[in-house]
Amino acid sequence: MEEHDFIVIGAGLSGIDAGYRLKTELPDCSYTILEARDKIGGTWSFFKFPGIRSDSQLTTFGLPWRPWVHDKDMADGPLILEYIESAAHDEGIDKKIRFRHKVTAANWSSEEQRWTLTVDNEGSTKIFRAKFLFACSGYYDYEKPLQAEIPGLENFQGTVAHPQFWPTGLNYAGKRVVIIGSGATAITLLPVMAKTAGHVTMLQRSPSYVMTLPSVSVVGNWLKQLLPARIAHPLNWWRCFITEQGFSQFCLAFPNAARKLILRLMKQQLPEHVPVDPHFNPRYVPMDQRLCFCPDGDFFKALHRANCDVVTDVIETVTADGILTKSGKLLEADILVTATGLDVRLFGGASTMVDGVPVEIGQQYVWRGCMLTGIPNAGAVIGYTTSSWTLGADACIRLLIQVYKRTVKIGATSAVPTFDETTHSVVSKPVVGHSSTYFVRARNRLPRITGENPWYGRLNPIYDYWQLWFGSLTRGMKYVMPSKKIKCT
């Protein structure tokens, strides 16, 4: 049995950030990072599909304490992974990681005021104990993708590839490829596969908003070349941050105007034979789902190629050699790519219990975007869905550290959010209200919010950091003081 002050679950971007914040803000506390896989990097070492990249600018998507120094701001997966690995190595965080340590159960003991974690290490079971948990394992299931309903898929005689488990060595040169989906993954795959495939069709049930961003920022690189690094990097970060937040808030405040603007920009980049309606005219307003970004317009450029097209239709059935749509169109294919989304899962899929009683995550309320009612000394570290993920994850981690510091300051042993439903008249809703299929199907598994302070989810960096400085650590929070019944070790 090992005991630590903190245990971080997951060694992705959020887990490395948590390690750094613990190291610098709580240097006297012990911590370890438990990673189920054998590699650092989370998403960026897990996904292997062609062209995997960020759809956010790395200047703000990167770690707040580690400037992004590369010229390319919308970077490919391998470059992002190299960045994460070097950050962890340089800060000594990689030495705190236990690879192939999958947390299968986490049980809080009110008597001992400790978490006990059951961990699978390549078939053997280990026990870890901790005062506080940081669940930095993201929000999707690494072991299975979203189970999309594709009628007749079993009839297909070609290759079926899911981006989450891309077949090693899959050769698509000269082949007919149909990508099922219209999200960020499909937008990434289409231009890359079209370079060598015989023909690529993106088959979508409903369209998405797609916007172009430059892969290399002229202004950003100018700042880096002209000014000392200690001045250039902060200036460049604030430039990206203000631009990103300004656009996000514009979309949220003026959705109809934002819709018209994005539709006009898409129309300017599409070839004449690909009309905006129905292929790029979503039913929802911007930010109701995450916007798709493509570097240097590579997605739109691909649609100008003779071997690339988009079809907006519903699948009637999959045949032996393709897909028959509801409108009667037959899409011949050698390879089907099911880019249909992720299966949402919190806490890395570990069974979460308090005093041996399983906690129903979907029945809990979210306190300030990271802690859940009924679960002491633990936080689910989640980033933003309308802007750079890491900004939200970092705000969450820093808030959890604030909570821990307060427990120490007042002599408490734990902190647990408490929600009194009799005092709230506002109807609750899922913490993520997006209309994306994978979030809609997970709504009964997502914790709840009311939108009132402190019962809200991840909003935006400006509000979250304001709350970090001035927000209450006591409203909606119960601090448990030591008693004779508590066995503290």
UniProtKB/TrEMBL annotation:
Q: Which UniProt keywords apply?
A: FAD, Flavoprotein, Monooxygenase, Oxidoreductase
TM ranges: none
Instruction: Kindly list the GO molecular function terms attached to this UniProt entry.
Output: flavin adenine dinucleotide binding; N,N-dimethylaniline monooxygenase activity; NADP binding
Q: Which metal ions or organic cofactors does this protein require, according to UniProt?
A: FAD
State the name under which the record lists this protein: Monooxygenase
Look up and give the organism this protein is from.
Answer: Pseudomassariella vexata
